[in-house]
């Protein structure tokens, strides 16, 4: 209900597009679409379209995200539409990711170097070693510490993809990345 109310406030303020920067909140995307008059920009769908266009041969992606996002299956369901498998971290690895994101010395606490960065990079590399042909930075905080040069496979960054989609949908020219 709070997300639907927020959409109404945004539209009353003149919003012509609705986008949620929280991937986990996309769990309610269908309800948001129904509540909104303005078009809803899905970071999930935009990311899938980007991967299909930019990396058409990719059949397996690794997911570095919060436990809630991983458990929701949002990325798995989205990528399944294109026959792309999503590799998630093993439970112990996922626990380390969560600590790096929300722990006392984690990314949400403002730490973007040292242990949080090393942990996220190590987990992304682990997913690549298990067969991921690209890594999806599937949580808002992940791109703050994981960079394309950190891994041997492409890094797919939904926040950047979504921002670019919003600019294009708003009618502004934008160079392709």
Residues in β-strands, percent: 5-15%
- The total of helices stands at 8
Main sheet: strands, sense, barrel:
4 strands, parallel
- Can you list the strand order of the major beta sheet? 4-3-5-6
One letter per element, helices H and strands E, the order comes to: HEHEHEHHEHHEEH
Say what oligomer this is. Answer: single chain
Radius of gyration: 16 Å
Low-confidence stretches: none
* Proportion of helical residues: 40-55%
SSE blueprint:
Elements: H1 2-12, E1 18-19, H2 29-35, E2 40-41, H3 43-54, E3 60-64, H4 67-72, H5 74-80, E4 85-87, H6 91-102, H7 115-129, E5 134-137, E6 155-156, H8 158-169
Parallel strand pairs: 1-2, 3-4, 3-5, 5-6
Question: Could you characterize the architecture of this molecule?
Answer:
- A four-stranded parallel β-sheet has the order 4-3-5-6. It has a two-stranded parallel ribbon with strand order 1-2.
- With 177 residues, the protein is α/β, with parallel strands linked by helices.
- It has eight helices and six strands.
- The longest helix is centred in the last third of the chain and has 15 residues, at 115-129.
- It is globular and about 45 Å long.
